[in-house]
Design a protein that fits this description.
With 240 residues, the protein is α+β, with helices and mostly antiparallel strands. It is built from three helices and 21 strands. The protein has three domains: 62 residues, Complement Module, domain 1, CATH 2.10.70.10; 63 residues, Complement Module, domain 1 (Ribbon), CATH 2.10.70.10; 68 residues, Complement Module, domain 1, CATH 2.10.70.10. The strands form eight sheets. It has a four-stranded antiparallel beta sheet with strand order 1-2-4-5, with no helix packed on it. A four-stranded antiparallel beta sheet has the order 8-10-12-13, with no helix packed on it. The chain has a three-stranded antiparallel beta sheet with strand order 16-18-20, with no helix packed on it. It is elongated, with a radius of gyration of 37 Å. It starts with a helix and ends in a 5-residue tail after the last helix. It comes from Cricetulus griseus. Pfam families: Sushi (PF00084). Keywords: Disulfide bond, Glycoprotein, Receptor, Repeat, Sushi.
Amino acid sequence: MTLATVLMAPVLGDCGPPPSLPFASPINQLFETTFSSGTVLKYTCHHGFKKVNSSHLTCDENGSWVYNVFCAIVTCESPPDISNGRHSGRDEDLYTYGSSVTYSCDPSFTLLGNASIVCTVVNKTVGVWSPSPPACENGCIDLPDIPYAFWEGNKIPLRNFEVFEIGTKLKYQCKPGYRPASNEPQIVRCQENLTWSPSKGCEIETVFTLLVLLTMFEVGKLISQPRSQMEGFASGFVMS
């Protein structure tokens, strides 16, 4: 055996850096660049993939890395159906980790919740849709904003806490110091187009406005007094 043969013998079976896999990463010998024949590298599946075979790579006698695909992407079942609506997925679609679908409602229905859901992973192996699918409701959502008013809470017929059926009427009262801005009833109604009937709300009372302005005027006069007068006022003030 020549010297060249002796020097090359341990090199011929060596492997270079292992291949970069799209579904897994090594967990041992991370900083080495040359590996002898027979070296076994252990791998872990990336998030969104699950283990299906022995998760390792082996350096063979020819200096090649040998392995079988050992991680498979997690899949979800078909997205849930909802009443009075549909999702953007198709029956033949394969829903893998990261896939998403968007829901929409039939005419005259309002979408309540998150419009889109995503295929996620729990326990590293199980595909589930998150968040929960939305619902399609035939009614108005949220309370309208009436300026300077509050709702008569005991007269609000809530359904599902956020949806009001068509025809629902809500009565409001003006806050102290305010009065209705028009002679119309202090009521709003959920209309067929799923919007609330308009209301002009409340406006500040005239007498209350004058009292506020008068108070501000008097405070302003006191602040604008010369310092000498202010000190005289303070020194001449006697508690009865």
